[in-house]
Write a structure and sequence with these properties.
Radius of gyration: 18 Å
Number of strands: 10
Shape: globular
Number of helices: 6
Structural class: alpha+beta
Number of domains: 1
Distance between the termini: 50 Å
């Protein structure tokens, strides 16, 4: 089975709830990526100006969202209550654990990623057009970003899902943040143009350890104090 098809079964997994998921992806199968998500995040701070985690809100594309909510209106009233969407939230966050929640945090200038705890306060909302997955990822060890800062990237290494920060108010900081700021850097636009010219055969050969999607990541850098 092609790698992208395996990811269709595993990534942001509604497949457990939507039996036609693989068929549903077919119209998008001619070009990578296959799912699009708009990211809004909050960098959460606790006491002593220490960063404690990241609160995400990921809004998925209309096509994927329509597929994801199929069969979830259990009372048939035409709306999707938070309780009806709870199983969707659960299967998403549990499945995303395998992919490190597509969230990569590290001290600026260092290679090693900072360890994260499992998600908290996760839930899904649906506005009739798009679903939004909300969840918080705590850092295992809170830290002061300092003047050099901490970077936060959100991306799918295989580029099956295209993540992009929202155009407005994409990343905020919340909590005890006096003297702290966040800046979002855009990826190289030429990388995206190059990807458009690649065939699906290229992406199907990407293995599970591929880091191809990192070049499309927008980087949020959090700093506290003067440089």
């Amino acid at each position: 089975m092609p790698y992208w098809n395996r990811r269709a079964r595993r990534i942001v997994l509604t497949v457990a709830l939507v039996g036609q998921a693989i068929v549903g992806f077919a119209p998008a199968a001619n070009a990578h990526p296959h799912v699009w998500a708009t990211v809004r995040s909050e960098i959460v701070f606790g006491p002593d100006r220490k960063m404690t985690g990241i609160k995400h809100a990921w809004t998925f594309d209309e096509f994927y969202s329509a597929m994801a909510v199929q069969g979830l209106d259990s009372n048939g009233d035409g709306t999707y209550a938070k309780e009806e969407l709870a199983p969707l939230a659960k299967v998403n966050v549990e499945s995303l654990n395998e992919f490190d929640y597509f969230t990569f945090v590290r001290k600026a200038g260092e290679e090693a990623f900072l360890p994260l705890k499992g998600p908290e306060d996760y839930w899904v909302e649906y506005d009739g057009t798009a679903i939004t997955l909300h969840f918080t990822l705590p850092l295992k060890t809170p830290l002061d970003p300092g003047a050099k800062g901490v970077t936060v990237d959100v991306y799918d290494p295989s580029f099956f899902v295209a993540f992009g920060f929202a155009e407005k108010e994409a990343v905020k900081i919340a909590g005890s943040t006096q003297g702290c700021a966040v800046k979002v850097e855009e990826p190289d636009p030429e990388s995206a143009e190059t990807a458009k010219a690649l065939s699906e055969a290229f992406f199907s050969q990407l293995g599970p350890n591929s880091n191809y999607g990192s070049q499309f990541a927008q980087t949020a850098t959090v700093t506290c104090g003067a440089k």
